[in-house]
């Protein structure tokens, strides 16, 4: 018959397995982030190349394609290190299925590039292709963010995912602005899209700010006070406030591209810092859990040898009902102090309570992720069935929430519930 | 380099692994449910035995102890079948840690029984002991309910967990009412507690009704229209409306115990039906996923042999953007029809979309579980810091929600957020 100790140790081993998986996933996220950044640049250069009818940017574009291929190889190598042989419960199914999707896109990438090279596709169509591939890569990162069972790690993954997503909107903003300046003429459609991209970007960066650690939140705030940001804001204003049909200075095209690129490169450094912090945290947690496991095993051996152990404590004694002092989640190592002083019952209590507390915190993190997802889904529904743009859909939801004095997520939930009772044909 | 197919198959294998783990967990939940039911009866009989100063119920109690020991052996056997050697990510850590806690309680159970046998402990204290052990067992069931990644299974697990939890409140109601009738005198404390238990019971049964399948919801509704329920309601009224300090007919003690027991036995049959439905669903999903896997593998072999396969489809072609028709989650088998007609890309799309849809539904299920947990946590906080009973804490939250015209969960979240900013000493 398995003892309480056996399960206590098994629980710790599961925790370690989860953390190891997470460390692996975080390496995958890093490689994917680097590749996304390079693809964003390839997209921008392809845009400029197509806008100039292939007169300019040809060399820069080809150099960037070569750079992307190197990073693509790294991403594929990271995919290959994932253990696809041992089936695992949890988010494995979703992660692997996202990867299968991305691999289809990577296999088709040479064809997309050929279409750009030979100018068969328009800038808009090529951009849409790159966006699709990048979205597939972002979905891989998202699955990782959804899998952590340590709330601190989960929080940082959420911050990282939203930052990367925000950077992608910045990349799309660069493409949209470039197209407007290159056309030399303000167009309502493009202007609308630009505003929407700025809006989406800011929402992502807000989530990042809500979930990131203090130092990284401050690092990002400091970067934003930089000169480049002011010059970008000036160009944004020109793009957004020019009368549709009116002229736009094509000479600003290059300045716009450079300003946006500078911003994205800065974002990449913050992204790298986020990823490094995440990796360090994973390893720190892993080291702590490994130490705990060694302690548990030492104690189990002592028990099996019949050595003198502290009393077991009384399970039904009301004194035991008092919750153990909250374990400092930041330093799980210290929390397990000298164990010889403590009863097994206290240990079990503490472990259960620590996991409970982590679970509670995780629920909170998940709840806010969930709310975001529900709002996005309701927006998607409105876009599909009322032919609204994403920006309009968001505005509609916000207006409904204000009118009804309800939270955005409640309104979104009501919209989704409504859709469920519609006959399939009308959905 | 691993292909998209390789990851598609790995994803399916993960799904299968998750379902297998779930089938195992559901067997564990069954055994635990049977043991809880028997322990509830042992608690009731221990109560009656202590209330009669050991004059009555001695034999019935001992017979029930023997019955509990048999079921305990089954639960321990179910614990032993869990694979504690291969560490798994996901909820393994929490599940195993809950089990470690329960094992401590089971090891201490003989001592609790001795205290009852020798009448060293009062009925109230013994009841509290049994409640603690049963709560530990319920926590094991809860971890199972929290682990499913198939929304239909998750919904049924939530229904089952809440039903079992509701039955436990019914068991505590039986004990509280028995104590009141045995004392022969209405006491405000006990009456308050009785009302609270009825209230908690009904909330659990409401969640059950919200998540259960139609047939089982109806089965439960049909059972409640039964005569026993009317007689129970009459006794509840007598208990609740007698003036504190006024007499209670001790002759009703036996009738009350029998009426409550009849109700709990009926609840057990519904619980069994819930568990059977859950097991059947697990096996059905498992069979479907296994068939899908076989199809995928057949196709992969065909591909590796260079056999004629339908076209891959164009990843970047906008026609592919149109979402595949929603897969009927109830019948995943049919959804994968004759695959020879379909491109790999469509297959990948479909698989991703199906998992996405499952994930979306799961979010909804989790969101409502989460809300419940947040409300419970806020109640716990109010109980601890304002010295309120659970019933008062719930009433306070409800009143706040009504006054502020907000949802219960929003008020609960506000209460928790408030606590976070208090200095540790005041929490």
UniProtKB/TrEMBL annotation, chains A, B:
<dbReference type="InterPro" id="IPR013587">
    <property type="entry name" value="Nitrate/nitrite_sensing"/>
</dbReference>
<dbReference type="InterPro" id="IPR010910">
    <property type="entry name" value="Nitrate/nitrite_sensing_bac"/>
</dbReference>
<dbReference type="Pfam" id="PF03861">
    <property type="entry name" value="ANTAR"/>
</dbReference>
<feature type="domain" description="ANTAR">
    <location>
        <begin position="355"/>
        <end position="416"/>
    </location>
</feature>
<dbReference type="InterPro" id="IPR011006">
    <property type="entry name" value="CheY-like_superfamily"/>
</dbReference>
<dbReference type="InterPro" id="IPR036388">
    <property type="entry name" value="WH-like_DNA-bd_sf"/>
</dbReference>
<protein>
    <submittedName>
        <fullName>Nitrate regulatory protein</fullName>
    </submittedName>
</protein>
<dbReference type="InterPro" id="IPR005561">
    <property type="entry name" value="ANTAR"/>
</dbReference>
<feature type="domain" description="NIT">
    <location>
        <begin position="30"/>
        <end position="285"/>
    </location>
</feature>
<dbReference type="GO" id="GO:0003723">
    <property type="term" value="F:RNA binding"/>
</dbReference>
<dbReference type="Pfam" id="PF08376">
    <property type="entry name" value="NIT"/>
</dbReference>
